[in-house]
Amino acid sequence: MCGIVGIVSTEPVNQQIYDSLLLLQHRGQDSTGIATADGDQFHMVKAQGQVREAYRTRDMRQLLGNVGLGHVRYATRGSAAREEEAQPFYVNAPYGLILVHNGNLTNTRELTAELYNVDRRHLNTHSDTELLLNVLANELQAGAAGPSLNADQVFEAVSRVHERVEGSYAAIALIAGHGLLAFRDPFGIRPLVLGRRTGPAGGDEWVVASESLVLESGGYEIVRDLAPGEAVLISPDGWMYSRQCAANPRLIPCSFEYIYLARPDSVMNGISVYDARLRLGDVLAEQVAAEVPAGDIDVVMPIPDSARPSAMQVAQTLGIEYREGFFKNRYVGRTFIMPGQAVRKKSVRQKLNAMSTEFRGKNVLIVDDSIVRGTTSREIVEMARSAGASSVTFASAAPPVLYPHVYGINMPSRRELIAHGRTTQQIAADMSADRLIYQTVEGMDRAIMAGQSLVTELENSCFTGEYVAGNVDAEYLAWVEATQES
Ligand SMILES: O=P(O)(O)OC[C@H]1O[C@H](OP(=O)(O)OP(=O)(O)O)[C@H](O)[C@@H]1O
Ligand SMILES: NC(=O)CC[C@H](N)C(=O)O
Ligand SMILES: [Mg+2]
């Protein structure tokens, strides 16, 4: 998952894009980029690292214009370290296009061959985003009748993109002289929300972003989540056009957004992330009560940050005291989205510290939102034991992660997943926990989708092995495993 934002304003957008990217930092820490359109002229700045370190004042000054977009990257194809894969990507024809993308394409091999053999387009990186941009460019070119471009032509091009591209993609593009285009894949796997406000001199200002907290913070009203397959085109003077561009759209958003990726204060597809995490805690508590005799646990503790709402709810539902025994160094980022196992492992130790007075002589129930590689849980159990815990029960608000994720979370290989091919008891032994309790898939679905009717299915492939988009078979998974850095 990456974070994306696009804004059409009545005033310069550079600072607004920067501020929005700071709010989306939790979605990607590898690199960042901003592009603006000043009439027909594009300006772009990209850099490795996080938003606060990436942009200097002179970079910001050159980002002129009232229309723009931005990106924070968490690499899922190619490499986090390659500067040329930082987004946005640019192509000069047709018209001039710049694009940012959250998601991951699954037919990259076919697209790469087609783009070269049929469309005669050169690709310079291993990024799937470069592919997406070139397919869009090709389809816009194919439908272009002359120098002017109308909304119908743009939407027809997006329809052809949907036909050619497989996988997950929430994307925002600038079309020089024509404004901002945003579209979401036909399953709506990755999020994208549209907002509007009135500018200081009147006139509509628009934002499209990965998460609603960007809208809230900028004083925009939420218009709606883009529907799966829908495209929105906003002209530089604030006219908004939209159309359903997919033949068979079906909303199946990624459950991992609710479990871990998104900020709790965002609302996605009408579901509050915070409420979903509370309910995950409620349902997990049922599981704990069924597996652990009453009185066997003295205290419930979260692993900061993402597990807090679920852990609070586990404690409350079970009537057990809630304490914070792990303290977090606020200057260390999210460890799961860091590139490379060595840095992730080291960072867990730098990030979290166990306070022995909270652990000594106690039977603790530690709650995390998810266990993926086990990097966090292995370290945490060891910390709890050295801090003097009598026993350590570990509970995960998500079910066991058993399969690779190919739609925008970088878990390419089965081997690295602590739960793959193991029983719960074996995993508990691996992390040296006395007991391990997992949420069930049914419980997770119930918790996330409770109390609403818009979302009736979730993209759960990393838990179930069922892949909704593209032809994700054993051969493809073996290829991803062999070629993608994790
Ligand atoms: O089993 P693992 O491979 O360690 O992955 C799971 C852990 O990683 C995430 O934490 P992270 O530190 O990224 O972010 P957070 O502060 O939002 O919890 C997640 O919340 C789990 O704690
Ligand atoms: N996490 C994402 O959305 C990644 C976008 C794109 N696949 C990249 O690797 O840059
Ligand atoms: Mg965590």
Query: In CATH, what is the homologous superfamily of the largest domain?
Result: Aminohydrolase, N-terminal nucleophile (Ntn) domain
Helix content: 25-40%
User: Can you list the ligands bound to this structure?
Assistant: 1-O-pyrophosphono-5-O-phosphono-alpha-D-ribofuranose, glutamine, magnesium ion
Radius of gyration: 23 Å
Topology, number of strands: 22
> Helix count, per DSSP?
17
Low-confidence stretches: none
The main β sheet shows up as: 7 strands, antiparallel
What general outline do the C-alpha atoms trace?
globular
CATH architecture of the largest domain: 4-Layer Sandwich
Mean pLDDT: 94
What assembly state would you assign to the polypeptide chains in this entry?
single chain
Task: Output the CATH class name of the largest domain.
Answer: Alpha Beta
- Beta-strand content: 15-25%
Q: What is the CATH topology assignment of the largest domain?
A: Glutamine Phosphoribosylpyrophosphate, subunit 1, domain 1
State the strand order across the main sheet.
3-2-4-1-10-9-11
Q: Cα distance, first to last residue?
A: 14 Å
Structural class: alpha+beta
Number of domains: 2
Element layout with pairings:
Blueprint: E1 3-8, H1 14-23, E2 31-38, E3 41-48, H2 51-54, H3 57-62, E4 67-73, E5 89-91, E6 97-105, H4 108-117, H5 128-143, H6 151-164, E7 167-175, E8 179-184, E9 193-198, E10 204-209, H7 212-217, E11 221-225, E12 230-234, E13 240-244, H8 255-261, E14 267-268, E15 271-272, H9 273-291, E16 299-302, H10 308-318, E17 321-322, E18 326-328, H11 341-351, E19 352-354, H12 356-359, E20 363-368, H13 375-386, E21 391-396, H14 424-430, E22 435-438, H15 441-449, H16 461-464, H17 474-483
Parallel strand pairs: 16-17, 16-20, 20-21, 21-22
Antiparallel strand pairs: 1-4, 1-10, 2-3, 2-4, 5-6, 6-7, 7-8, 8-12, 9-10, 9-11, 12-13, 14-15, 18-19
Glutamine is lined by residues 1-2, 73-78, 101-104, 127-129, 408.
